[in-house]
Structures are given as C-alpha cells and as structure tokens.
Amino acid sequence: MPVPVDRTWPNFMIRGMTLPIYIINLDRRVDRWQVISEDIERLGLTATRIPGVEAATLAEFDEQERKSGKPPTLPPINLGSAACMIGHTKALTSLLKSEYPAALILEDDAELALDTPSLMQSTDWWPDGSMLIRLEDGRRHRRLLRRVCGKTPGGRDLRRLEKFSPGSAAYLVNRDGARLLLEAFKAPTETVDHTIFDLQVSRTARRLRTCQIVPAMARQRRDDNSDIVGWRPEQKLRALKQQAY
Predict the structure, then answer these.
(1) In sequence order, what are the beta bridge partners of 161?
(2) Distance of CA 23 to the CA centre of its chain
(3) Is the confidence at residue 187, as pLDDT, over 50?
C-alpha cells in the first residue's frame, strides 16, 4: 500500500524556529553523548537525545522468543543492523509527533561542519521533490553523483544520488520522507543505509529523491569503534576492513 504524502504541510519554518536535531545514543555511551552534545552547543544549536537499543538486548529477546516457540518479531536482518534501525525509527517517529516540517537525524559519532546552523532555519532551499538531504561524506563514492540541482544556504552544491554510498550518520528528512522510511522499516530486507541510499535495491531510496551535499557537511568519527561491528556478518566485516585500508 502506498504511503500517503502530506501535501498540506508547509516547507517553511515559523519565524524564530529552527529544525529539531535528534541524536541516537546508547545509554552506556555517555562519552559519545558528551562529545557530540558539546559540538552541537558550540554551533549554537540544541538537540534531543534518542535512547538507542543494544544489539545484545535484541539477542536476549530473540532467544526468549525462540525458546517459547513464538514466531520471530525482530526484523530479518542481523541484530546489529536491527538495533540501529530501531534507533532511527524512534527518531523518525519523534519528528512525526512534533510540529516541525523536517529534522536532522544524527548518530552519536557524527561530526558536523561549522556552517550546519545555516541548514536549520528552513526547508525552502530543498530541491523540488526531495524528501531527504544527506550531509555525510560519501568518501570514494562521491563521484557517483548526478549534476548540481541546487545549493545549500551556505553555498555548497546539492547533487542527486546516482549509486549507493554507505553510512547513515547524518541526514535531514522531511515528514513525507519519515513516513516512507517508517513504512520500509516495518519489514526491512536491508540495513538502514541500504534502505535509505541504495537506489539499486531499495524502492524507498528511489522515492526519497535524496540530495547529497558536496562538499559534505558531516562525517563519522574515525577514532571510535562501531557499537554494532561485532554483530555484523563476516562478509560485511571483511568489506569494512578493506575500505578502511
């Protein structure tokens, strides 16, 4: 069933308002929360913490369900990716419960550019039809982008995604995009970043008409290990090691 699009919601902000920021953070990662909240404060912004879900907690829940003979209720993806997806689901739900037209969704290891506040005053600079703006660095995949289709308020290029670029640490999404993602996350077959950005395998990614900011305005910290790395399949781990090398 197609997700209804909210045509009545304005793409502008009420005067004096800024778009909300939701940061997905595990309870035990107080260190990450302190670093990113200090960064946000230095930019003159405020953020709402979204409690993340531990993959280990999902593993315990999954084992209990199997022992009780109940049909599995967790997504049919690896538990690390499922935990990540639940965190993004909670953040997107928070947007739809608010009065705002869009929000910035961050994972707690994201680093932001100094001109990030310029993105948060309105959505009237978004290209027509775009439901999601990607801030994160595409690294070696940066060349896989279409021609310029707009500019950020700070003068950076906006380009349509052409092929998959990994990572889901920083993106702006409007209410229509949030609805599409929540619908896709109900019965996922791919990880969060593949669902959002992989145009080849994800119909949701194609419908979002995502734009990438170039040069990128966010990246994941390189000095910290992923909290879900131990829950990824071995094939994925080998690919990550190759990419890091």
Answers:
(1) 145
(2) 10
(3) yes
Any idea what the Cα angle at residue 93 is, between residues 92 and 94, rounded to 5°?
90
d(CA 85, CA 88): 5
106-132: pLDDT as tens digits: 999 999 999 999 999 999 999 999 999
Please give the backbone phi and psi of residue 26, each rounded to the nearest 5 degrees, phi first: -70, 145
Buried-state track 68-77, b at ≥16 Cβ within 10 A, e below 16: eeeeeeebeb
Residue 24 burial (CB count, 10 A): 24
CA-CA distance, 56 to 65, in Å (whole number)?
A: 14
Secondary structure of residue 75 in the 3-state scheme: coil
Tokens found for residue 55: 């993959």
Contact 193, 133 (CB under 8 A): no
